[in-house]
Amino acid sequence: MTASQSKSHKDRSIGEWSEADQAIEQEFAEVISFVQEQYIPESVPPRLDKQIKRLANGSALEEIEKSWLLSSGARLTLVILLFFSIAMLWLIF
Amino acid sequence: MNSVTDDELYRRYRSGNRRAFDELYERFRQPLYNYVRRSVSADRVDELYQDIWLKVIATSARYQNNGRFRQWVFTCAHHLIVDEYRRSSRGEEVPLPELAAPTKADDEFKSKIDQAILRLPMEQRQAFYLRHELDCSVAEIAEIQGCATEAAKSRLRYAYAKLKDQLKAELKSQSKDNTE
What we know:
The complex is a heterodimer. By secondary structure, chain A is an all-alpha fold. Chain A is built from four helices and no strands. The relative contact order of chain A is 0.05. Residues about 1-10 of chain A have low confidence and may be disordered. By secondary structure, chain B is mostly helical. Chain B contains eight helices and no strands. The N and C termini of chain B lie far apart (about 55 Å).
């Protein structure tokens, strides 16, 4: 993983770590930096990226549709009430 | 959009913002894929990776927006990986993850390090990757793995200690080869 890719997750300052974390970092500092240098990250297959984004968008779309149904129902009630009020006013006056 | 928290992006996604998901996905795709890639056999990686995201998408209502989104995502991943291993204990074979053969001579040493990590027991390997990929603290590792802080701490320490021994052995054999 490149530094820029991991930046959003690696913004923790050492001060936020517990004593146990700091002790581990100090005890194995050599191994940690060595592995960091030698590490070969695997890249995500692009077709998998596309597939997941499509699934996520489908799910988001469903939720929007659900809320749209609710809001159009509310709108319909409002329109009926409005017509009803106009009709009542016309009958009275 | 970088200053926006994971929780805020997830909230926006749930209210229909597709771009929010793309941003969130971009933040987690690489560490999550590496985590899965090094936890299960190669032929199961893609399916499991997709299952994790499906779980994140489908169970969005269960997430409580408590500022622990990454713990939640990796807990979902951990549970699915554990299920995979449980299947193996019921007789179905779950082979160890394997990595592609090094293409260059320079990569050979890197590959040996990777293999050494893969030889770690599953819980230790995962603790190692959570630290390595996400800089997770011992407390966060414990939360994701559903164990006590002390257990998470010793998993991480054992992982590093084994890697240290492995590295020493590798470097020793390399220097021996060079002198011969």
